Amino acid sequence: xxxxxxYASNMTEILDTQLAAMDEISRGNLEKQVPxxxxxxxxxxxxxxxxxxxxxxxxxxxxxxxxxxxxPEVSRKILNDxxxxxxxxxxxxxxxxxxxxxxxxxxxxxxxxxVEMINHYFTEMERVISDHGGVVLQFVxxxxxxxxxxxxxxxxxPDQAVSAALAMRAALQRLNAQRRERGEVEIKHGIGIHSxxxxxxNVGSARRKxxxxxxxxxxLASRLQVLNKNLATDILISGETRNRLVxxxxxxxxxxxxxxxxxxxxxxxxxxx
Length: 273
Hints:
Alpha-Beta Plaits, 8 strands, 23% strand
């Protein structure tokens, strides 16, 4: 009876320790390893639990690293295998933003100074876009491509995109105020916005793919961003986006009809004042 009681007591202690470890894992604490309290079959249970914790830590590290290169919203779709092999047709609003005279800016500064500046700029703009319901698809050079309503559709994506553009304008003004205080030159950007259908899906080779938006909607948004240079504006939206806005018409100024590359017909263009 003494042997049975001691064995039962040891078993209870081992099981309590194991259950406590599993409870910590359920709370997300993966740092506390299960102590080895015996030399029997329970050792294998403890060792397997410790190995599982190591695996979970590696998984979380990979996921957090993945989210730094792809937006968390898109990474979840990829990891959950939630992207149709042939893509899907979505109604969205695309926003392109591009720094002005960036080549000349970069030529006069060290690479480290350029990277520091553009990373600071991207950080502020990505935060603003995310706060307004957008997802940054990619950074290309000094350009930002963002989409609204692609991952979690809400239906008011034109207003979200325009609100994001206005917030980006305000954020850039704050950045430039800081740059003036440091005696640095101001930076400028142009933003183009267009609403319509896109094909969203994985694009690339058999070995490497990227989640992309394809179609005329993407192309026109990019062209409007470039058109800012000719019209001396910083935000341009298409007539299609304008027609869907709840934003008061008094905030918009018609800039006429313009022919852009890739379009056979001229498009109505508006700026946000």
